[in-house]
Amino acid sequence: MFRRSGTGSYEAWQPTRVHGTAYTAIKATTRPITACRLNSVEKASKMPSREWDPRGVLADLIKKRTHIFTSDNEIDLKKLSKGIPIEARPTNFRPGDIVQAEVSLIMIPTSIGRKMKIVIRRILLLDTTLSDVSIVNT
What global pTM score does this model have? Predict the structure, then answer.
């Protein structure tokens, strides 16, 4: 993968390091809520469960009408139960888990070209063996 540099040419994509370790990763994000000034088309959706916002910070911003929660902010979380995907909570996921992720690649125009952003759409929890072992050993 390549990204465009300030000179108009493309430079090689560099992976993200995981928490200062030697492990490499692809950085993918999804905004928990969207600023109203950035959204002129989509209607607001219902805010997800309190597990996504335990301190109510996001809910307060939505109440002030400076931000909204839309379908673009949603992440579909699933886990395998006897080989069948079922609903999962955000607290089911821990570092070390093996997951399958569905993402969207979005090209955003900038003053020097375009920037690629990876947005998480769906995560399926496949295996918790490594994170289960780390909990036992701590």
Answer: 0.67
